[in-house]
Amino acid sequence: MEGALLKWTNYLSGWQPRYFVLDNGILSYYDSQDDVGKGSKGSIKMAVCEIKVHPTDATRMELTIPGEQYFYLKAGGAAERQKWLVALGSSKACLGDSRGQKEKDPPLSTESLGRKLSELRLYCDALTQQVLDMQESTRPRDDGAPLDVERMNEASSLLRATCSQFLSTLEECMKFANARLAPELYPPSPAPLPSDFVGTKLPHSHRVRRSLSHTGVASPDRSSTASAGDISGCYRLHRNAALCPPLR
Description:
Layout: E1 2-10, E2 14-23, E3 26-30, E4 42-45, E5 50-53, E6 60-65, E7 69-74, H1 78-98, H2 110-138, H3 149-185, E8 208-210, E9 218-220, H4 228-243
Antiparallel strand pairs: 1-2, 1-7, 2-3, 3-4, 5-6, 6-7, 8-9
């Protein structure tokens, strides 16, 4: 895709018209369409840039590589910006899908989550447009001409790549949400007892024997009660004392 957009240059010059060309995942810009063959004034790789839309201005969008490049662009209208967003998002999705096995991304921060959500909205718009293009490419022509197979293959490949990138971005957002909500949904289990504590016998005086009755009254340990032999011995002593006459 190519066309004219306004680009923010600086506070002195403000918005200036530039001619942009999106080709093979690289967005390049020139002073005018006549300068396309003379070398670009600048470019940005869609695979590594972030696409954001302005929250209040329906014609503005931003392409940024944090800490490196910032493209602030303005289209002629909301419809034109939407076309560019679909083209840019589709290009980014294709590049993300063609990288194959991605490197593991660092944990998402709240700020990066916001950027990912913006990408999700962008991919939703791209998917909507690509589905319409796919339907259009499979619709029989009024003149009876055969279907354009090449166009159908291109539309299906683009749709598949965008779906893949959409799901990948959604998965990253879900991982972030799970990491934030897991401590609240699943509180940590209590720490296990130390290994040296397990199996330790309590002191003899602290051991009790719990009654099997429903009252649950605990009775002292067997060792704390008098034995049968002790009771019988005491009884004999008292009996003998009663039989013996008192001393005079």
